[in-house]
Design brief:
- By secondary structure, the chain is α+β, with helices and mostly antiparallel strands.
- The chain has a single domain, classed as Sandwich (Jelly Rolls).
- 16% of the residues lie in helices and 37% in strands.
- It has 3 helices and 14 strands.
- The protein starts with 8 loop residues before the first strand and ends with a helix.
Length: 193
């Protein structure tokens, strides 16, 4: 575990063995989508592909993600995380960054359906990309060069006190997949639709 991390983040490099095989399986088995979102009055395509696996739909940034079936390999991974972290994960948002121009801007996973102090388990597969965490008040930053089966667990005040991002990069990189497991309150999810 990285010692200079904020107390709400745990980093486990190489947590998942056989990450290359899982990347290939999931890249083929997941039904990837590209949504559009509206920012400052402009509608633009999201700069990455996504897929939502869960018990019900998920809404963020005005986008409703309908759940797709869990690929067997992903369901097995969810069970391992449930046992090791003691969290009843019931959903996974998968992001596929095709190259260095695909990205995710600063944001927090702070939807009411997640509760006030959610635990989010994030597994990275494929080429390495920087993941940046920034404190909302002080502006202090931490970064991890994630890939190849690394696990990053965000918990406690990670979403209320910090924002995180996967910035664009000019260095040559291939595809990177990020699997973020969450526990959603199903009743709250239904009412947000």
């Amino acid at each position: 575990m990285r010692q200079d991390s904020p107390g709400c983040v745990d980093y486990y490099p190489g947590w998942l063995e056989d990450a290359d095989r899982l990347f290939a399986v999931l890249q083929d088995q997941i039904a990837w989508e590209r949504h559009e979102l509206t920012l400052y009055g402009r509608t633009i395509p999201t700069p990455r592909l996504t897929a939502w696996m869960g018990d019900t739909a998920y809404r963020y940034s005005g986008i409703v993600n309908e759940p797709t079936p869990w690929p067997e390999a992903l369901a097995s991974l969810r069970e391992r995380l449930r046992q090791e972290l003691g969290v009843g994960f019931n959903s996974c948002l998968a992001n596929l960054y095709r190259d260095g121009t695909d990205s995710m801007g600063y944001h927090s996973d702070n939807e009411p359906e997640l509760g006030p102090r959610p635990t989010i388990a994030s597994i990275s597969l494929g080429d390495r990309r920087w993941f940046v965490l920034r404190h909302r008040t002080s502006g202090k930053r931490w970064s991890w060069d994630l890939g190849q089966g690394d696990l990053l667990v965000m918990r406690n005040e990670s979403q209320s006190d910090y924002a995180h991002a996967v910035p664009k990069t000019t260095r040559p990189v291939g595809p990177r997949m990020n699997l973020t497991f969450r526990w959603f309150q199903a009743q709250a999810l239904e009412s947000s639709r």
